[in-house]
Amino acid sequence: MQHLPTPALQVPPGWPTAPATPTTGTVQLHSEQTGTVVYVPGPDGTMVAVLREHLPTATAVYQPRDLTPQLLFDPRAQRIAAGGLLAGGAGWGAGQLLLGAGQLVSAAAGLGSLVMWAAIAVVASRIGSVVLSGGRPATVHHTTVHNRWFGRSTH
């Protein structure tokens, strides 16, 4: 039976690892410990056992918060939104104006058509009676005008 090599274990970063060589030193029993041991991250990323009383006990000092009321919306965003609404309103108004102008042009075209048909009716009434009745007797009037100096004219 062959023994296959076991793959090296991957230890996640920040987890404590067992030292490669055995350590030497005095053994301190749990009952002989004077304080609580806690693990903190060391400079090389490994977890290091430290007595709790050796850790700094100063509390963090926070800066006081600014509690002045703030605007609900950003003023620049308000100006941009107002410009967009203004552009939309102006576009809608221009559309309504062009719609009204289109109706005015349509009405003018209809009125022009009415005037054209009225003119055709008047001309047809004048010409029709002449064509159908053989014509009216024409009256011819001759006028002779003699123009003189300094705007004097005689008939």
Helix percentage: 25-40%
Number of helices: 1
| Biggest sheet details | 2 strands, antiparallel
Query: What is the strand arrangement across the widest sheet?
Result: 1-2
Distance between the first and last residues' Cα: 151 Å
- Tell me what portion of residues adopts beta-strand conformation: 5-15%
Structural class of the secondary elements? mainly alpha
What are the secondary-structure elements, in order, as H or E? EEHEE
Number of strands: 4
Radius of gyration computed on alpha carbons: 55 Å
Would you tell me the overall average pLDDT?
Answer: 80
Morphology call:
rod-shaped
Unreliable stretches (pLDDT < 50, length at least 5) are none
Could you please describe the fold and organization of this structure?
It is a single chain. With about 160 residues, this protein is mainly alpha-helical. The chain has one helix at about 75-135; strands at about 35-40, 45-50, 145, 155. The strands form two sheets. It has a two-stranded antiparallel ribbon with strand order 1-2. Strands 3-4 form a two-stranded antiparallel sheet. A hairpin with a 5-residue loop joins strand 1 (about 35-40) and strand 2. The protein starts with about 35 loop residues before the first strand and ends with a strand. The mean pLDDT is about 80.
